[in-house]
Amino acid sequence: MDARHATYRAAAIAWLLTVAIPIVARAQQDDVKPPTRSPRYEKHVFTSKDGAKLNYWLMSPKVEEGKTYPLVLALHGRGGNTEAAAVLASDEMREMYPCYVLAPAVSRSQVWAVPASFGKLRGKAMLPAALEALESVKEKYPIDADRVYVTGQSMGGFGSFGAIAASPETFAAAIPICGGWAPADAEKMKHVALWVFHGDADGTVPIENSRKMIAAVKEAGGSPKFTEYPGVGHNSWSKTYASPETWTWLFAQKRQK
User: Fold this and answer.
1) Are 70 and 148 in contact (CB under 8 A)?
2) DSSP symbol at 67
3) Which of 38, 67, 73, 240 could form a Cys-Cys staple with 89, CB 3.0–4.6 A?
4) pTM for the whole thing?
């Protein structure tokens, strides 16, 4: 390689490092939209130990001195929305269940976590960063560590299963909706209170994903609840989050020690 080519190559590498890669990184961040439209959420940016950037939105309760509050980790689906976060932001729910709600968001090139057996979702797994962000929030705010919950719809349903598989000691309960996971991880989840929801006419994420998980957790010694909606397609979350029973059950759960 002559001196001129070496100079061109060095210039190209410098351009790639200083211009092209940062532009791509910014574009991926710009692709992240708020997972809920409620003005009660404040945006934050978290940097994980491996350098990954994660946008998240946090809603806080009206804090009384000396009190601690539950926290709900709400994971959105592939469409980028989390109905749980919107429901919990209503005046009625804030009065009944004062809590922190952590709603992280990822771009279309990212996922929360997906088992290898489910081939429709692919992308960089951001659940580890979300769990790190959760720990940072617990350190900053008056969180009741025995009442930390996770719920999510579709891709967030997979992420909810993934969260209690990755860190079962963190969560008191999980509500995965129209998701699934690897049955081999059921042993890790058996001590977490679990209520799974799925429509039996779901053409996007077949209900067998949830049925297999329920069977596996029961076989491992857990006592999961399972609600199947006859004739309901992929959107089984609206019915679930609109039910008062869902929230009564969730906020009654405490972490097993």
Assistant:
1) yes
2) -
3) 38
4) 0.87
